[in-house]
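## retry 2 of 3
previous attempt timed out at serialization; input unchanged, resubmitting
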Amino acid sequence: MTGPTTRAVFLGTPPEAVPTLRHLADQVDVVAVITNPDRARGRSDAPQPSAVKVAAGDLGIEVRQPQSHLELLVDLGETSPDVGVVVAYGRIIKPEALAVPAFGLLNVHFSLLPRWRGASPVVRAILAGDEETGVTIMKIDEGMDTGPALARAATPIGPTETAGDLTGRLAHLGAHTLADSLPAYLAGEITPQVQSAEGATAAAKVTVDEAHIDPAHSRESVERAVRAFNPRPGAWTTVEGRRFKIWEAHPTDADAPVRSIVADDDRVLLGLRAGAVELIEIQPEGKQRMGAAEWMRGRRGEAAVWGASML
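## retry succeeded, writing output
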């Protein structure tokens, strides 16, 4: 059934939703893109369009930005879609909206459901030390990522891969997986399969507080946290009472005094209660990101105290 006669709406907001939008536009008639309202980003106070809105403009697709559930219902009703596709839209979609398209709303979720249901599946997978993740194409129901699955595709998590890197890969994997499965689903050749309750885990929204690194953490958990919270919100601690972000760190067999940051030949070591990690890229409060070695040279090699309370 896919083709220019299939009417679809696309709901999404951030950059990782764009690959699926572009693939979908090659398959069907995307009659509208629904994305979150413009909002201020970075240092500018001026409202900025979402990445999906920009991409929709490039593709010549009508954009709608409902601010409420009722507005979303109106938009869906006016566009009369056969199917909807959702990638990181950023809002809960209520049952009345789910019922509008004849084939429902399909979600491209960045995990192998039922593992990591929720808002932050990529971050949770890295934090947990998962060796594998993937994407699941599911039909949205009233639960939190509990709908029946049409297709899955797995991929290994690289040992140094950040959440940003992995999200980018999953965005393209999800786009291709949807493109491969959508025609068969619309033709009635795929019956969505109910998810198993076994192995279900929750991927709660990330908070700034949980990105805080403590000297009691293990080398492995610090290294995972640095990767998982990159690019948002950034793993952080304090150095001499001021916030200090860590953007890249590697495990090491070397040791350093607990709560210290010391130069060790050409390395900069962050001392934990059990072992140390090597700092590669950091960002002191009020400064740009920089190499840890460059930062230590600016201190003339003087050791720093970290992990104390902020002043």
